[in-house]
Specification:
Distance between the termini of chain A: 32 Å
Helix content of chain A: 40-55%
Order of helices and strands of chain A: EHEHEHEHEHEEHEHHHHH
Strand order of the largest sheet of chain A: 3-2-1-4-5-6-7-8
Structural class of chain A: alpha/beta
Radius of gyration of chain A: 21 Å
Shape of chain A: globular
Strand content of chain A: 5-15%
Oligomer: homodimer
Largest interface: A-B, 81 and 81 residues
């Protein structure tokens, strides 16, 4: 893959890592970054994630052969629609948003002929933010879920898959709704739980936490506005995932209340088996 | 501190780390380990955690100046009572159990004159097990909660504090019940949540988990029988902690159901602030 110009809208941890990975792997000849603040674009440029920083999304996207939107999920569809007008035919637009259904629905049938948007979600990241935490190997061996619609041009889909593979990722095609239901359980619910748990820790108990509390709540350090957007866009699936968790918590509560250590041990052993299978 | 003989009952991750730390810091001249299987005692000896392995708890404790019980919480009080008869006057018995109230109550007023038991809980450990994961620096800078009773000999308390400090730990004296209520929130509830979350992950979604799910559920890989014992001994405090969490989850659910993104952002931002204060 040899893209003449790759534009990255939002050069934080994910966008910056895309830039670093693309440069290191020779995926793009020129990498443009778009941000709202000159200072963060300068940081992204100084770490080598982009060649040039621009404040104007549309101008930067119009120069791109491929553009990746790494902005908060509630802004992606609007930015894509705005930028699509004026793109050269054949421009491929994709994203790195944690939700896919709302974005795909918003864009369906609303882009100019010859301009494709194919949704993407790299399952990589951390609670950290900004280009200073970008990592050229962030996508190495990680999964990127790609969510075409029924009307997606097969060639655009193929280019999207090739782009992420070129950054070192594995790819998997999923329906956007199926993605959102799955990620509600594997990502959004864990964040909600971590935040609920961190939120009830009184200051006087800070010193009585150890690695267990810290691991379990680590993702709660993520940016709240980013996650508010994700929860709002995937509300129904997150509520459904929360109901499944409630049912499981009720089983734990019942076993505790009745002193049923056999059931308690079974619940814990089932969880251990599943967690062991995931690896570290 | 220069103990002539330190006996460690249960030479797993914690017991093995006590042995390694005691050896490295010259805390004890001879270190005895007690286990139920010769093979694990041989492993503990080969990694340098103990000088000698014994299968007989009482015989090993009777030779000790200080003995530390690192066995599952539901076995500690019984083992201490059994071993205390036959100890030399002045022998100090302590433990590394994650619960303290039930153990302290069980032992109160039931030990021979001159034999002291002072409860301890090092806030260190991991989901891993066995002497192969033992670490001489496990207690370095970590907190050990020490829980004397109203009748604890002040000298025995002082020796217990000195012992853990000699292994590199910080120490804090707490009432056993206060310890259990605090740890229900900072350790036992996180384990319950991690297990509930891991337990509802269907196999087909394993590949759609990333670091968020893995961090949040890491402790669920801990040994189920160990944790069944902890939950059973601290049942009321764990149920109370679970009610606090339920209240918080209800706030998240309400914010999601009503589309109240302001409240959602506030809940997430409060959690972030607390989690940020804990450090990595």
């Amino acid at each position: 893959m040899n893209v003449h110009t790759l534009t990255i809208v939002g050069v934080g941890l994910i966008g910056g890592s895309i830039g670093l990975a693309a440069r290191q792997r020779g995926v793009a000849r020129r990498i443009l970054g778009v941000g709202r603040q000159k200072s963060s674009l300068e940081r992204a440029q100084s770490v080598g994630a982009i060649d040039e920083g621009l404040l104007d999304v549309n101008a930067a996207v119009h120069r791109a052969e491929i553009a990746v939107f790494c902005t908060p999920v509630e802004r992606i569809a609007e930015q894509v629609r705005s930028a699509a007008t004026g793109c050269s035919p054949g421009t491929l637009l994709t994203d790195a948003g944690s939700t896919k259904g709302a974005i795909m629905r918003d864009l369906e049938g609303r882009l100019p002929a010859g301009i494709a948007f194919v949704g993407s979600h790299p399952l990589a990241g951390s609670e950290k933010r900004g280009p200073d935490h970008a990592d050229a190997d962030l996508f190495e061996g990680r999964l990127v879920v790609v969510t075409p619609s029924l009307t997606t041009d097969p060639l655009a889909l193929e280019r999207t898959l090739a782009f992420w593979r070129a950054l070192g990722a594995r790819v998997r095609i999923m329906d956007a709704g199926e993605h959102d239901r799955a990620l509600a359980l594997t990502s959004h619910l864990p964040h909600l739980l971590a935040s609920a748990l961190a939120g009830i820790l009184p200051p006087e108990l800070h010193d009585l936490t150890a690695t267990g509390f810290r691991d379990t709540t680590r993702v709660a350090a993520g940016d709240s506005s980013i996650w508010t957007g994700i929860f709002a866009q995937n509300r129904d699936a997150v509520l459904a995932a929360l109901r499944r968790l409630d049912d499981r918590l009720a089983q734990f509560r019942c076993a505790l209340e009745t002193g049923d250590t056999t059931s308690l041990d079974t619940l814990l052993a089932q969880a251990k088996e599943i967690r062991d299978a995931l690896g570290s």
